[in-house]
Amino acid sequence: MRKISVKAAKKAGQPPGTLTYTGRSRLDKIKITVIEYNEDQYQERTLEEVEEYEKFKDKDTVTWINVDGVHDIDTVEQIGKYFDIHPMLMEDIVNVHQRSKIDSFEESVFIVIKMISLENKSSQVEKEQLSLILGTNFVISFHEKTDDIFNPIRERIKKESCAIRKMGADYLAYTLVDVVVDNYFIVLEKIGDLIEEVETELITDPTPQTMRAIHDLKKEVLFLRNSIWPLREIYSKLVRTESKLVHLSTAIYFRDLHEHTIEVIEIIETYRDIIYGMTDIYISSVSNKMNEVMKVLTIIATIFIPLTLISGIYGMNFAYMPELQWRYGYPGIMLVMLLISVFMLAYFKRRKWL
Predict the structure, then answer these.
(1) Is the pLDDT of residue 6 over 60?
(2) Which residues, 6 or more positions from 283, have their beta carbon under 8 angstroms from its beta carbon?
């Protein structure tokens, strides 16, 4: 079951711009990789010393700096200083409970989006904040954990024929965000499979565990909706932005990304409607099941009413009851009771009550 928590207490009372990590994930060591490329060259390396950041700022190549782990406040703060990132933006990077958003400045564009994954064991949706800073010739990406979601992009950049190698930093930013959105469809497909499993169980044999599964699905879909819904505004702003960092040729791609986001939201809304309908189906199924039980019990009681009447009559202690002295009285009454039971069962069957 998801635990809803707000980590605002860590930041309460602190001045604006104070860097305080609000997440739970902590890597053993922060990992920083740098990829430099243009149409003719490619270079990838892992940075060990903080002083190495500065030399990537004003190069002719496009530079992608990827930071795995934002719990190391000192390292994140030093990166911000070398690239002249405003302290308020750096605060948003380490405050991993930010709402998805976009902030456009003269020298940079700051994007916060949520990376979504589905745990295989618990079937619970996990959210991770991805912060992107787009500069003139660089992109810096920050996320909490080491994730291989960007590995396909690294492999594409290695190829000289790749379109990324021919484009600027804005296209790289689009590519990173596009991978995140594509991953939404993978997660939604898995959730769709879970919904189908619960629907099958709901129709065949609903149990209290089925209702719990419906409740968990409802929470996960609501969690997804709250995480992805703000992205419509983000991509809409990127399409309409007049920032010199986002070229017209790249804005077309962001428009396509905006349409994909709308599609994701529509799927989530469909899932939400289905799940709310499943709750009604569960209640109806349980009621129908109870009605079937009550019908069987009623039929059994109805059959035994005349039998109880006969046994009650012959159970009275009157001295002059003619049948009491009859030799075949007992088997005769039993036969009559059996015939009554058979007749009533046949009648119920004919009326399709059984």
Answers:
(1) no
(2) none
